[in-house]
Amino acid sequence: QLHSDLDKGVGSVKYTLSGDGAGTVFTIDETTGDIHAIRSLDREEKPFYTLRAQAVDVDTKKPLEPESEFIIKVQDINDNEPKFLDGPYVASVPEMSPVGAYVLQVKATDADDPTYGNSARVVYSILQGQPYFSIDPKTGVIRTALPNMDREVKEQYQVLIQAKDMGGQLGGLAGTTTVNITLTDVNDNPPRFPKSIFHLKVPETSHVGSAIGRIRAVDPDFGKNAEIEYNIVPGDGGNLFDITTDEYTQEGVIKLKKPLDFETKKAYTFKVEASNLHLDHRFHSVGPFKDTATVKINVLDMDEPPVFSKPMYTMEVYEDTPVGTIIGAVTAQDLDAGSSSVRYFMDWKNDVDSYFTIDATEGTIATNELLDRESTAQYNFSIIASKVSNPLLTSKVNVIINVLDVNEFPPEISVPYETSVCENAKPGQVIQTITAADKDLSPAGQRFSFKLSSEASNKPNFTVHDYRNNTAGIETRRNGYSRRQQELYFLPIVIEDSSYPVQSSTNTLTIRVCRCDSDGTIQSCNVEAIFLPVGLSTGALIAILLCIVILLVIVVLYVALRRQKKKDTLMTSKEDIRDNVIHYDDEGGGEEDTQAFDIGALRNPKVIEDNKIRRDIKPDTLRFTRHRPPAEDNTDIRDFINQRLQENDVDPSAPPYDSLATYAYEGNGSVAESLSSIDSLTTEADQDYDYLSDWGPRFKILADMFGEESYNPDKVT
């Protein structure tokens, strides 16, 4: 309850409340000042509330006292049980651990107020899992409660842990969790053989390295503590066998180290020891962690194939050995009790085997064809031996025959040489070093000798210097060589080997004379270079030739352009000579004055009406549109003049002044007939204008114009 000293109990004071939970969790009586909770409170949700209260005058609404702040604390009750937030738990502890060995610590959490009463004081206990484990009631540490717990007896344990508040008193709340505890393995058990003697039967034909039997020791431990190592105890027969461990089954696998022979020994006895690889020193007192068993092996008699006296045979034969010569023999025996005869034959795989034959009874090998070491230097084939009593039992052996060389090929120059000599060479200068090669198999210490042939030794050009190491040098014997006199020299060289019988060959070395500079560097070996001027390089000659070609191209283009221009001028002159209109601006000098007026206009009855040019004013342009006259009947020139006159009379663009035009009209029935080509059915090429010169002085100009050059239609393109 809130109360103000100014409150006289007459209802003049009003109380207000604000802050955390005001109006939602707490409410206040405005008249009495009583504070009430209007819903349930949870300390774990909010442990306290901060509120502010004030007394206000009812009439004036003004505060009677300053605002005061107070805190409401929520008092805790035991309404939350302990909880294992990390449960359920999984733990492990080694087997055979002593009492009190640490296993795991569990922890329960109580949401109640630990500072108020015993609501949050937790006590731990075991509900299930005794007497194997114990727990500290305060700390929750779980420990072993029994000694020597054996994993091989029981491996998994499930322990039920309880946590109770109120210090474990009656009425406290409790929570539980499960702890799964596993006993981990330790090497506390030695391996043991289930029996002391193992009997094995092995055929004498078993292959070396093959597994002939298995034995096993039992170890109840797990994982690496159960890994077993097997060893053969040195003694009778142990050196013929070996034993290894199968890592998956932990069995001892007995393998054969050497071949068995029933006729030599029929049984073997030895001991095998099994021991752990990983020992635990804490259990040494238990005893040795190993066990021993006896293995007896009985060898079974088998019908075996023949056995060769050697694992491989190597023979040698000269390549010139005659066919049928015996070069060696192979031997095989039947080692069984009832010895049987042996037959030999070749293992035919390819044509190489046909070079040799074998005697089926004696096993001798002879040549069947002539051998050539240069073709095949070594033969490798197989011989098969079988028992006569049981042909299915066979054995095989490899035979290697090396073909020995016979000196039958002469030595030759190893590679083709391109030898050259400078024109300015000095005597004694080495121009080439040569080597030789022999197709025969050269024995150790074989040497080749070089010399000139007898016919070349007398010539004073070149000589051969033998270096005594299977090489020789070609040296010059004179001062200077001339390509003009001789460009190529052919030098015969005799090469001999040192084998028996001695083989030799004559090899011709071609020497080319070349032009060199002062340092001996070859500049040119071509024949054409002999006639070139001294001091002029190939690059300069190419540049000169290129310039000449460019000049020729320019000249050809210039001539072609001139010819084309001349043709164009001729065509223009031929086509426009009759239709050219000559304009003038004077009255002229009469009918013989053709410079002032062009009579060509008289020949064209259809003058373009749009092209009206004043004849008394010199026009700016001299171009007129040319029309082809229509093919129509000849009309009188007078009709044409009258028509043009009428057109000019009605033409508003005609000059307002008089213009004088003189027409040289002959009239109808001219002796020379019409000069117009309108009705001419012949081409210009068919016209002959020589008759114009016979018409008198009036047609002199026309005769000169049409006869000044002959018309050639073939030039028109």
Automatic annotation (TrEMBL):
One of its GO terms (molecular function) is beta-catenin binding. One of its GO terms (cellular component) is catenin complex. It is found in: Cell membrane. One of its GO terms (biological process) is homophilic cell adhesion via plasma membrane adhesion molecules. The chain crosses the membrane at residues 530-561. The keyword Iron does not apply. Residues 4-84, 85-193, 194-308, 309-413, 413-531 form the Cadherin domain. Gene3D superfamilies: Cadherins (2.60.40.60), TCF3-CBD (Catenin binding domain) (4.10.900.10). Keywords: Calcium, Cell adhesion, Cell membrane, Cleavage on pair of basic residues, Glycoprotein, Membrane, Metal-binding, Phosphoprotein, Repeat, Signal, Transmembrane, Transmembrane helix. The keyword Lyase does not apply. It is a single-pass type I membrane protein. Cadherins are calcium-dependent cell adhesion proteins. They preferentially interact with themselves in a homophilic manner in connecting cells; cadherins may thus contribute to the sorting of heterogeneous cell types. This is Cadherin-12. It comes from Rhodinocichla rosea.
